[in-house]
Amino acid sequence: MIIGSGGQLGSELEDYLVSLYGREKIYSSDIKKNNSNGENFILLDALNKDDIYKTIKENNIKIVYHLAAILSAKGEANPIQTWNLNMNTLFNVLELAKEKVLSKVFWPSSIAVFGPSSPRNPAKQFSIMDPTTVYGISKLAGERWCEYYNKNYSTDIRSVRFPGIISYKSLPGGGTTDYAVDIFHSAMKKEKYSCFLKEDTYLPMLYIDDALMAMHKIMEEKKSNLSISSSYNLSAMSFSPKELFESIKKYKKNFDIKYNPDYRQKIADTWPESIDDSYARNDWGWKESFNLDKMTKEIILNLKS
Ligand code: AKB
Predict the structure, then answer these.
(1) In a domain, 283, yes or no
(2) How remote is the CA of residue 120 from the centroid of ligand 1, in Å?
(3) What is the model's pLDDT at position 33?
(4) 46 and 189 both lie in a single domain
(5) Does residue 198 fall inside a structural domain?
(6) What is the mean pLDDT of residues 64-76?
(7) CA quadruple 283, 295, 115, 143: dihedral positive or negative?
(8) DSSP states of 33-79 as a string?
(9) Which of 142, 164, 195, 200 is the most buried (most CB within 10 A)?
(10) Ligand 1: distance of its center to the CA of 288 in Å?
(11) Residues classed as catalytic
(12) Can you give the pLDDT at residue 253?
C-alpha cells in the first residue's frame, strides 16, 4: 500500500507497482481523493493510527511505501504542522512495523538532511548534518528513528535520500527543486519561464523513472546486503537552472528564461551541489539510466504527444 498516493511520487509509483505486481496486489491511499485514483483506493488520514491499522489488517497488507510529507519550501510556512505531519505519520507506520503487522516499509528521506556545514561537492553518506528547514530536520530525525527501530526492534525499514525528482505526468508541490519540473511546462506553453533560483545554483536531481527503479531495487534487495539501516545517499545528475534551460533550448529554440530568486534560493544554498552515493551503488547495485540530455529529450517528446 502506498500512503500519499496523490503526490508526485505516489501517483507514478502506483502505476509502476501495478505494472510489476498486478492491480489486485496494490492499494493506494491519501487524505484526498482525486480523479486519477484507480481501484483499491482508500481514503486515509495517515495521522490516524487506528485507521491505518484497520485498513492494513482488513486488507492483509504487508508492505507500505509511506510517501506522505510536506516538502521543504511549503513546510517553512507552517513549521509545527510540517513537523507534526512528517513525524507522526512516520511513527504510526514504524509502530506497525514494530508490532510486525508490516513486514517491510519504504520511507523516503531527502538531500534536505544536509545543511550549510555539510560538504557540498559531493556530500558524503556520513558527514556533518545541520539542516535548516523543518522538512530537513524532520527527515534527519526520521532517519535516526528508522535506524533506531531497525536496530532495536528488528524492523525492515528501507530508505533513500531523494534529490529533486523530475517528472512530467505528475507535479511536485512545495519543494525547492520544483523549478526543474515547472520549466518544462512553460517551455511547452511557449511562455517565458521565471525561475525562482539563480542561474548557477547546482542541485542533485533524479528522473522519475530512475526514482521508481531505485525504490523497487532497494525494496527487492536481500536485507543482509544493506549496510545502511538509516537512509542511503542517492543521485543521478547535478545541474543548474542555466544548464537545464540550455538543454531544453535544443528542442525549443525560442524558449526564454528570467531569474527571480526568492526565499527558496536560501534553502537551495544550504543543500549540496552533488552527492556521493557509492554505498547505494555498492550495496544494492544502484545505477541511474537518465542524464540531463536524455531526460530532457524524453520529457519534451512525451509532453508533445
Ligand atoms: C524539495 O525540494 O523539498 C524536495 C526534496 C529535495 O526533498 N524535492
Answers:
(1) no
(2) 16
(3) 85
(4) no
(5) yes
(6) 97
(7) negative
(8) --TT--TTEEE--TT-HHHHHHHHHHTT--EEEE-----HHHHTTSH
(9) 142
(10) 19
(11) 135
(12) 97
